[in-house]
Specification:
alpha/beta, 7-stranded mixed beta sheet, binds nicotinamide-adenine-dinucleotide
């Protein structure tokens, strides 16, 4: 018997469970709305539980704000805004620094709540969502006394009251993306978190209290689409929305002719392009990171994988082997790579699009893994033999599903990548710097990564082209939507 055939070499090692304990997390049973610096009852008393998508169990009751609640939050912001704007920038900065520090201090608790409420792996909420949320407050604290330098030396004045609506895929991080620049610029804000993931925003409200942010500068109204619709139609001076393209269009129509500022961060179907000269193993890791990060609930997910024909078989074979090692399950387990799907509705959307892919003739492979009995789950899936017209190549799936298309030449890669109504992000894998720059310049996408994917930094601008929206968040560019330049 050859040495490599001994039974000893056939032992397969498995991970022991490494669950993060939620024991020290102290959530209230029920949350009101955060208006004027205090938690208040919703006027009609409506509350619904926020559900843990990994267990289908309720975590805490959350208020659903009606029109009158939204109006009172806007009034509170209106009353607080002039004094906030009059503060010297360096004074506003102190509050933002405090918020950033408190997010860091409560990072473990925030990460656990984010994973409980949204289903994302604790590894990601711990290492990505929460540190980046703190980093955004730090970054914009630094801008608060340098606003002129961020807009080419011109004078600036804040909009006034901004209404901000965020989705469920990065709840605290999106709240930070919205609030930090708005406050740094001297605006007061009314933020509406998504209905399936309101809890970390409510903890952020507590943090604002602890940081003694002046009452009314930050208001948080929980609720569903009706609350969001009421907020964007309320007496606000600017609306910032992150979410689906359909709702973005509805908001744009509602604001038409009202002179209200608007930025939209919407959906995507981003191309991740692998050239034959790429470092293939590195590219495979980047593909996995590009599509399976946060269960694929990522607006800029590399969901359209374009591989050069000469290496397509090799890349897909290696990708499939790597995918089979992904660990799907308990979001609170530190070994988990792919957690729970955020809601039953989102799971249905993913299943419907995957079914459409099969019906249209693409070849589906889904990794074999044991899924928990309760909760909402979808195992990582790859589609090959995908045609550009297939729905799975055109529509945003927003789940752990990658569609593989191939190309022969650089020109064809660019044409296929741009053949989308979206234009949020793209990835380019090549060892030729000149090729990367040439292709990047030809792509209609707001963010383009070279030999990496899904890297985020508060200093870098993020935003889309076409139906992915307009306006930029992050860095100096992220100040521009929150000030009038005079
Ligand atoms: P969604 O548009 O349904 O909801 C987003 C938010 O808008 C939620 O808070 C929701 O309650 C609220 N809302 C719903 N209807 C509304 C209405 N008529 N008026 C005002 N607000 C309303 O989207 P979703 O399913 O929660 O999120 C997924 C989408 O968000 C995906 O398309 C994704 O690509 C996009 N997204 C984009 C970015 C980005 O930066 N471009 C980031 C994250 C998510």
């Amino acid at each position: 018997m050859a040495a490599t055939d001994t039974p000893r070499t056939r032992i397969t090692w498995d991970y022991a469970p490494a669950p993060e304990s939620p024991d020290h997390v102290r959530l209230r049973d029920s949350y009101g709305l955060f208006v004027g610096g205090a938690f208040v009852e919703p006027r009609d008393g409506r509350r619904l539980p926020s559900i843990n998508p990994a267990t289908e169990e309720p975590i805490a009751d959350v208020a659903y704000a009606g029109e009158a609640d939204v109006a009172s939050a806007v009034d509170a912001a209106r009353a607080a805004q002039p004094a906030w704007a009059r503060l010297p920038g360096r004074e506003r900065a102190k509050y933002l620094f405090r918020v950033a520090r408190l997010i860091q201090e409560r990072a473990r608790e925030l990460a656990i709540v984010e994973s409980l409420d949204g289903g994302k792996p604790i590894r990601e909420s711990r290492d990505v969502d929460i540190p980046l949320a703190a980093a955004h407050f730090f970054h914009y604290a630094g801008w608060a006394d340098k606003l002129r330098h961020g807009v080419g030396g011109r004078d600036v004045r804040p909009y006034g009251v901004v209404g901000q609506v965020v989705p469920w895929n990065f709840p605290l991080l999106m709240a930070a993306w919205k609030l930090a620049p708005a406050l740094a610029c001297g605006n007061a804000a009314v933020l509406k978190p998504a209905e399936t993931t309101p809890l970390t925003a409510l903890l952020l409200a507590e943090i604002c209290q602890e940081a003694e942010v002046p009452a009314g500068v930050v208001n948080i109204v929980t609720g569903d689409g009706a609350t969001g619709a009421a907020l964007v139609r309320a007496d606000v001076d600017k609306v910032a929305f992150t979410g689906s393209t359909a709702v973005g269009k509805d908001i744009q129509a509602a604001l038409a002719g009202r002179g209200v500022g608007l930025t939209l961060e919407l959906g995507g179907k981003s191309a991740n392009i692998v050239f034959e000269d790429a470092a293939i193993d590195q590219a495979v890791e980047g593909i996995v990171q590009g599509i399976f990060f946060n269960q694929g609930h990522v607006c800029c997910a590399g969901s359209r994988l374009l591989i050069q024909e000469s290496v397509a078989d090799e890349v897909t074979a290696k990708l499939w082997n790597r995918m089979r090692l992904l660990r799907v399950g308990d979001p609170l387990d530190k070994n988990t790579d792919v957690g729970a799907i955020n809601s039953a509705e989102q799971l249905q959307r993913i299943e419907a699009l995957v079914e459409a892919g099969v019906q249209e003739g693409a070849v589906r492979r889904t990794i074999a893994c044991e899924l928990p009995d309760r909760g909402w789950w979808f195992a990582p899936t790859i589609f090959t033999d995908v045609a550009p017209a297939h729905r799975i190549a055109v529509e945003e799936i927003f789940g752990p599903v990658v569609s593989v298309l191939t190309f022969r030449t650089q020109a064809e890669a660019i044409e296929k990548a741009n053949n989308s109504r979206y234009g949020l992000a793209a990835g380019i894998w090549t060892d030729k710097g000149s090729k990367a720059f040439e292709v990047a310049a030809a792509l209609k996408a707001g963010v383009i990564w070279q030999n990496t994917y899904n890297q985020f930094d508060p200093t870098a601008a993020f935003g889309g082209y076409k139906e992915s929206g307009f306006g930029r968040e992050g860095g100096a560019a992220g100040l521009r939507p929150y000030v009038h330049v005079t």
